Amino acid sequence: TYLDLPASDIGRVTVARGADTLELVRTDGGWQVLQNGIAVVPGAGEQVDGAEIDRRVGQIAKVYLSAPADPARDVSAPMATVSVWKQAAAPAPVDPAGAGSGSGSGAGSGSGAGSTTVGLPALVVDVLADADGKTYWLKERGKTTAITIDASRVKDLIEVTRAAVVKVPSAPAPAPAAPPGGMQLPPGLPPGLMPQ
156 exposed, middle or buried (CB, 10 Å; 0-12, 13-18, 19+)? Predict the structure, then answer.
């Protein structure tokens, strides 16, 4: 195992792609999403999909070695950098007025109401896409080793977007259509079954 952190211990994940960042922050009330440091407020009928965030965060919690890779590759312009913070034992203090809150990574920073992350990230991983487009190169900062893995194992987290984690709930299935021509179904037939 190259990375091994219980998913339930993760309090915050930041995915930085160039100048854009998306943060997923576990709070007392569930997950909060921040885009470029600004809290995402779901629109009318939208909601943060906590189960989808759990699935995506789980992709970085445990990463198995597929093949060793060259740890000396140039990571001056990574495809993505993923930073992971553990939850603290107690929630960080929250400024009720919102002053001073933000998405910084300095010691004691939190990212929203009820945030339970403090201090520096537990791990920071740089990601490069290999030329074949099917594999990624990953290296945890501070380690002397790097790995190559199948892109599909972490792609959903690496390429996470607001639209992927803030969704409109599915509408209920439509009621079955009435029989044609005003026909009445005999009593006792299952819905959708037409008489011959």
Answer: middle
Whole-number Cα distances in Å, 183 to 177, 192, 195, 196: 12, 13, 10, 12
Residue entry with tokens 């553990």? 86
How do residues 11-55 score in pLDDT, each as one tens digit? Answer: 999 999 999 999 999 998 899 999 999 999 998 899 999 999 999
116-166 per-position pLDDT tens digit: 556 889 999 999 999 888 999 999 999 999 999 999 999 999 999 999 999
| Helix/strand/coil (H/E/C) assignment for every residue in 5-53 | CCHHHEEEEEEEECCEEEEEEEECCEEEEEECCEECCCCCCCEECHHHH
Contact 47, 167 (CB under 8 A): yes
Region of 181 (left: φ > 0; alpha: ψ -120 to 50; beta: rest) is left
pTM of the predicted protein model: 0.73
